[in-house]
Amino acid sequence: MGGQIPEASFRTEHGFAIKPELSLDKGPANGLLMGQNAPREGFEAIYLGKHAETPYRNVWLDTRGAHVLYVMGKRRSGKSYTLGVLAEGLAAQSWVKQGESSQGVLILDTMNVYLTMPFDIENTHSDQSDVVKEFRKWKLSTEQLPMTLFRPRGTTTPTAVNSVEIALRPSDLGSDEWCGLFEVDPFVDPLGHLITELYAKVLTDGYTDSRSGNFVPPNPNFLLQDLLIALEYDHDLDRYHRDTREALRRRLDMLRRVPIFSDTGLDVRQLMRPRHISVLLLRELDQQMRAVLVALIVKRVMQLRGVSEQQERMITIHLARADKLSLSDPTASSREKELAEECQHKAREGLPRSWIIIDEAHNYIPSHGVMPSRKPLKKYVDEGRNLGLSIVVATQQPSGLDPSIQRNADMLLIHALSHHDDIVAAEGMINAACPAEVAIDTRQKIEGGRTFETLVRNLPLGYALASTDRANRLFPIRVRPRATVHGGTDY
After folding, report:
1. Residue 475 · residue 20 · CB < 8 Å
2. Res. 21: pLDDT tops 50
3. Which residues share a beta bridge with 69?
4. What per-residue confidence (pLDDT) applies to 42?
5. What are the backbone angles phi and psi of residue 181, rounded to the nearest 5°?
6. Where in the chain are all domains bearing CATH 3.40.50.300?
7. Which residues are paired to 34 by β-bridges?
8. Which of 209, 293, 320, 458 has its C-alpha lying 20 to 30 A from 360's C-alpha?
C-alpha cells in the first residue's frame, strides 16, 4: 500500500537554522518519523510535510501506534488546514500513506470548515492557479478519497454538497447528558437531582401512574413524551418544589420542537468505517447540543471499540495455538482456527481502530464550566490508546483546555500563537527540548530565555513547531499542501 515515494527536492519558502542537529527516528525514504514508540521493521505512517531545515527531508507521522496529538495555533495560522492533511493521509490510497493499516477517521467540525472537503484541488482550480502549482511542486496526486458528510437532523447543507442526516433518540442520552444539555450540576442543583431521578424511573425502575394506579414498566427506548408523562403523574416526584418541576417541564416541552430528536437513534458504526473520512457538521447546533452529541459519540466509540479490541487480541492467541497444535492434535488445531474466525466475526460487530479529529476543542474540553462532553473526552484521552483509538485535539486557546489533559499528548504541532497565556500553556505541554538559538531565513536570530515565545510569535503561515519525545529538540515543519479544497481561509 502507498507505492513509490517520489523525489521532491526543494527548499521551503522559509528556512530555519537550529543547533544542535536534530535527532529523530528514520521514516520512509530516509525521511523523519514522528511518534514511533520503538523502531520496527516496515512503516505505518502518513506524509505530513517537510522539515524546514537543511536538507529539507520529508516528515512522516506514525500510525502504527495510537496517539494523542495536539494541534494549536491562533486564528488563520493553519491549524484547521493541518487537520485536513492528517485526515487525507489516514484515508489515502496513494504514496502519502505508507503501510497496510485501515483505520476510521471522524472529523468533529465545529465551524463547518470541512464542508468543501469532497472537492479536490485539481478539479476545482485552474492549472495556472498558485494552489495547483504548489500542489504539483510537492509531487502530490489527486485521488478520490472515501468520504461522507453528516449533518444533524434539522440542519442543512448547500445543494452541491451531498450529506447524510443523523438524529438522536431521547433514550440515547444518559442522565449526565440530560444534565449537561440543561447546564445543571447533577450533584448540587435540585433540577439536576430531579433529572437524574426522572431518568432512572423511566429507563430502569418504572413508576406508578397516579391517574390509574397502574405500574408503568421501564422503557429503554423512551421518548420525550414518556419523560413528560412521568414528570406529571409520578407522585414520588411531588417532593421536589413545584418551580423545579415546572422548570424541567418547560425545558422538555421545548425540546419537542428541536429537530435533532426523532425516533431514529444514532449508530456510531456508520461514522467509523475503515479507511473512510466522516465529517460531522456541527455549526448549526447550539453549543450545549454540540457537546451532548460529541459526548454520546465518544462514549459509544469507546464501548464498541472495547468489544473489538478484546476479540482482536484473542485472534492472535487462537491462531498461535492452532499453529502449535497442527501436528500433535489436528482436531484441536481446527477448533482453534474456528475460534479465531468467531473472534474475527465478533470484532467486526464493533469498531476498527480509529481517529477522532476535533476542531475548536476548547469548546468541548474547557478548563471551566459544566460541559457534557468534558468527562467522556478526558476518559478517551486517558484510556483510548489502550484500545487503539487516537485523537487529534485542535485549539486556538491551549490555555482554555482542561488542565488535566494538557499533559497527555505524545505529539504536538504548534502553529503561530500570539496570546501570552496560550504561549505559556503550549510551552508547558512540549515534550522535547527548546533550542536556545534559532535563525529564521538567515536574517532573524532568536536567542535567550524567551526563545520559544519569540519563535511561536514569528512562525509563518503553514509552518509549525513539532514536538515528540523521541526527538532531541523541537523542530520546524512546513505542512504539505492539501489535495482537497480547504474551506477555512477566512477563519
Report:
1. no
2. yes
3. 392, 411
4. 87
5. -60, -35
6. 16-161+269-286+354-479
7. 61
8. 458
Assess contact for 65 and 103: CB atoms under 8 A: no
Which phi and psi angles does 96 have, rounded to 5°? -70, -10
Identify whether the C-beta of residue 486 lies closer than 8 Å to the C-beta of residue 81. yes
**CATH number of the domain located at residue range(s) 16-161+269-286+354-479 in this protein:** 3.40.50.300
* Cβ neighbours around 226 below 10 Å, total: 17
Does residue 491 surpass a pLDDT of 50? Answer: no
DSSP 310-346: HHHHHHHHHHHHHHHHTTT-HHHHHHHHHHHHHHHHH
DSSP 329-393: -HHHHHHHHHHHHHHHHHHHTS--SEEEEESSGGGTSBSSS--TTHHHHHHHHHHGGGGTEEEEE
Angle, CA of 283, 287 and 291, to the nearest 5°: 100
Q: Give the C-alpha distances (Å, rounded to integers) separating 215 from 45, 201, 205, 207, 233.
A: 58, 11, 10, 6, 11
Kindly state the cell numbers that stand for 182. 440543561
Within 10 angstroms of residue 183's Cβ, the number of other Cβ atoms is 16
What is the spatial distance between Cα 248 and Cα 151, in angstroms, rounded to a whole number?
A: 28
